[in-house]
Amino acid sequence: MKHLLSIESLSATVIESILQGSAVMKASRGHHTSQPLQGQVWAMLFSKASTRTRVSFEVGIRELGGQTLFLPASEIQLGRGEPIKDTARVLGRMVHGAVFRTFGQNEVEEFADYAGIPTINALTDAEHPCQILADLFTIREHRGDLAGKVVTFIGDGACNVANSWVFAAAKLGFELRIAAPKGFHPASELLARAGGRVRCMEDVAEAAAGSDVLYTDVWVSMGKEAESAERLEKLKGYQVNGTVTRLAKPGALVMHCLPAYRGKEIDEATFEANAGTIFDQAENRLHAQKAVLAWLRD
Ligand code: CP
Ligand code: NVA
Fold first, then answer.
1. Is the Cβ atom of 158 under 6 angstroms away from ligand 2?
2. Ligand 1: which atom is nearest the Cα of residue 48?
3. 23-77 pLDDT, tens per residue?
4. Within a domain: residue 170?
5. Is there a single domain that holds both residue 118 and residue 171?
6. Catalytic residue flag (residue 128)
7. Are residues 237 and 142 in the same domain?
């Protein structure tokens, strides 16, 4: 049984085949020759808000012949304390696959263990693998092979998206730089586990210099709202703006996983100047996730 639980758990070969599959899905949208989810119903279990992930899976599953069942955690017994392992065993008897957005990585892993159906991590506090697969695909479309490139993440370097970038760098052989204030760098245990060329620093200018890609994410991830004031204060020097982009390679890609908070992690002018890339990233969620779904069914 295959699952997509993290970038950490994917081999470079599987990532490569998903990226190739993403290109095929994109080129053949509207005239797919196979419908790998024909006759299937997939549960979409969400404990956190979502626009892109929800819509791209709802549309992608249907375009591959399946149907979806959107289950906000607050509206099922899971939200009233029913254990994940019981929810998993019930859904596993009724649906053919699950897409799960939640808090703990252990929750998605426990669900996969008990449900006995292909399970996809649609974001946890630890990782956001679907986002990073779409981002890798987007970089490839715009700039070709990632090997030898420098990707620089600026902002909350300890968030789920940054963590998934750390594992991607190790597997695909590009240099990842993370510019973040003290207390917002990836855990040293995670860096050691991942390996790869990851350089963590506090100096944004040093990190941005000569980068091929500048990437950012929100300063206050879902579930961290109680820390908002402290985060906005500590991260305020870590905005992607004109000063920072001028230090990167000419024509460097500026990327954001969205949703974006203008005036916080990115300024309005930089966001709008790079909206083409940023909304390609959003669209590519659909194509990359369809490739993931086809791989899970393979
Ligand atoms: N980037 C992303 O996962 O967006 P949503 O939270 O809207 O799904
Ligand atoms: N780090 C962000 C990503 C949103 C897609 C969060 O977890 O809220």
1. no
2. 6
3. 999 999 999 999 999 999 999 999 999 999 999 999 999 999 999 999 999 999 9
4. yes
5. no
6. yes
7. yes
Structure tokens at 96: 């053919």
Is residue 281 within 8 A of residue 258, CB to CB? The reply is yes
Tell whether 122 and 135 lie within a shared domain.
no
- By CB atoms closer than 10 A (0-12, 13-18, 19+), residue 189 is exposed
Which residue is catalytic, options 54, 96, 128, 231? 128
CA 32 from chain centre, in angstroms, equals 25
In a domain, 253, yes or no: yes
Indicate the pLDDT class of residue 264, thresholds 50, 70 and 90.
Answer: very high
Q: Are residues 274 and 182 in the same domain?
A: yes
12-27 helix and 160-172 helix, angle to the nearest 10 degrees: 100
Dihedral sign (CA 94, 96, 99, 105): positive
Ligand 2 atom 2, closest CA:
221
